[in-house]
Each structure stands twice: as structure tokens, then as C-alpha cells.
């Protein structure tokens, strides 16, 4: 890990992630205007000293809306990923530790679910549950669970045969102790790396759902919804679409690059392979 910042990927990813996290934490406090305040006299304005990112079709300040929308956008990505990691890890650990027909049955089911792309799977679930931020987050987490289960299972299988696990078995330690104190702590690295990368996908899927009207609902300042609301005015003022679109790209790229760098730092052989 000491060489983590020795690559451009790590540096760029960390900088972008720091910007996104700063906006998510402090954005609403430093927003210069009320994000819902209408100003008909300044509709669809480009960047200026008064409005650094310009204004949307209602004259609302885009910078303020981006800053106040950062918490919900990032929270959606992180929350959906954590829930998906939790569900998937439990399934993967059970399969990896149990083995036998239980493992085989679980893996066959997962193989079938993994054949469906995450976005399509999410759309199917949202269609069943209904729109809204909470349902969208649950749908993304369910879509992520099979992939995380497979990764968790692989990590557990690679650790289960290590000498320290065999030593714990020889000492007569309980199964719960072996799993929680010997297997899981040493199988976390690939799970953490994959979770970090998946946050970027969750943010993009959440933005897509918001754009389609299946995620965040007005008057939310979620970035995907901002793109959807402004798309019919993009030729009059491209900034009202470009700014939230670029914000989504920066957030996704930051998590993705940081996850890639974290993977290389935790697995040097992979980066030199």
C-alpha cells in the first residue's frame, strides 16, 4: 500500500474522489443560491460571474443544484453498493464455506442471474417495485448481489485452504470463529476493491434511472434527473445538460480509478502481470 500513490491512476482517482466527497459532504452548506429559487429573467444563461455554471430552464443556479444534488447522488451509489455487497457477501460466504451441493446449487442460480446485464436486471426490478429513490437503490443492490456473491465465494475458497485456517481447525475452534476471525478478514481485499469500483456503476445506473423517471423524482436535485429535466433545452443552453452530465462522469471516474489503483496496490502481481 505504500506505493499506492506512485501511479497516475491512483493520483487522479484520489483527487477526483476527494472533490466528489467534498461536494457530497459540504455541498449544501456552500451552495451560493437556493437550488429551487426560480429566476425567470435569467433563464438558460451560460456561465458568468453571477452564476459560475449558468442557469437552467427556470433560472435556477446550476452550481447550487450540483452541490445540493451531490449528497443524494453519491449516497445512492454508496448505499446501493453496500447493500448489494452485504447481500452478495453473505450468499458467497455461505456457498464457499459450505461447499457440496449447497455451493453447486447457489452457483447455478447465480450463473443464471449473471447472464442478465445489471442495468436490465435493475429496470426489471424497478418495474416490479415501482419508481422512486428507495426502490431504485434496492433494485441496484439486488442486481449487484450475484456478482458480489461470486467474488466473495472465490475469495473464501482461496483462503479456506491456507495454513492458518487449517491450524484453527486443528485447535478445535468453532466454525463461527473460523469464518469470522480467520476466513473473512483475509478475504476482504477483493471484496473491498470490487465494491469501490461498483460504486461508479451504481452512480451511473442511478443517473440513468433518474433520467428515465424511475429513480429520483422532482424537485430532487439528483444529477440524472437534472439531465432529464433539461434535455429539451440542450440546444439553447448546452451547459444545463453538460454540467450535471460531467458531474456524473467525474464521480464515476473517480471511484473507478481509485478502485483500480486499490486493486493494483493490494495485488502487485496483477499490475505487473
TrEMBL record:
The keyword Transmembrane applies. InterPro entries: BP-dependent_transpt_permease, MetI-like, MetI-like_sf, OppC_N. The chain crosses the membrane at residues 12-31, 74-97, 109-129, 195-216, 236-259. It is a multi-pass membrane protein. One of its GO terms (biological process) is transmembrane transport. Its main location: membrane. Keywords: Cell membrane, Membrane, Transmembrane, Transmembrane helix, Transport. PROSITE patterns: ABC_TM1 (PS50928). The keyword S-adenosyl-L-methionine does not apply. Residues 70-259 form the ABC transmembrane type-1 domain. GO terms for cellular component: plasma membrane. It is found in: Cell membrane. SUPFAM superfamilies: MetI-like. Belongs to the binding-protein-dependent transport system permease family. This is ABC transporter permease. It comes from Aliirhizobium smilacinae.
